[in-house]
Amino acid sequence: MTIRLLLADDHPVVRAGLRAVLDTEPDFAVVAEAATAERAVELAASEPVDVVLMDLQFGPGMHGSAATRLITDLPRAPRVLVLTTYDTDADILAAVEAGASGYLLKDAPPEELAAAVRTAAAGQSALAPAVALRLMDRMRTPAAALTKRELEVLQLVADGLSNQQISKKLFLSQATVKSHLVHVYAKLGVDSRTAAVAAAATRRLIRTP
Question: In the chain, which residue ranges form alpha helices assigned H by DSSP?
Fold first, then answer.
């Protein structure tokens, strides 16, 4: 059985490299490519695709996690395997909660990528070892782990947004944003926005510019 693939990445060189690697597998067929997350959703809805290899960052457009959610909500939805350079808690949780079947880093060797594609196509979970370890660590210490919403708020703080801007972007009251930050400070053992961002970046909970 041939596994039909859609490559979603905004870098043509990356897509070409992936295609070159995947084309060496006799049971793989790259049937479509997308340079934007929006286009990936369109193709996943219109083309016969089994697995989407999804990047997370697409410049100013839709995020890969948002596209993943839309794709996995489709009738007869293909599986989504996230393939990215980011291994922060914020990115991993967003992708997994959006319905991704797997999460792999772009430096994975070709044989690991091929195995992950086959695992995802079979409807099973395909997580990079480092990603699986981070998720297990969160499960072991749930009280100390930042929630998905807390990570979202802190990521926006790191991106330079004010509480007012965060409240508008996430459709939260400013009081709720402040409450989330209070919880973040307590869990990270800090007392300021700057210290929270620095601590979270060191622990690879969020991405920093």
Answer: 12-22, 37-46, 64-72, 89-97, 110-121, 129-140, 148-158, 163-170, 174-188, 193-202
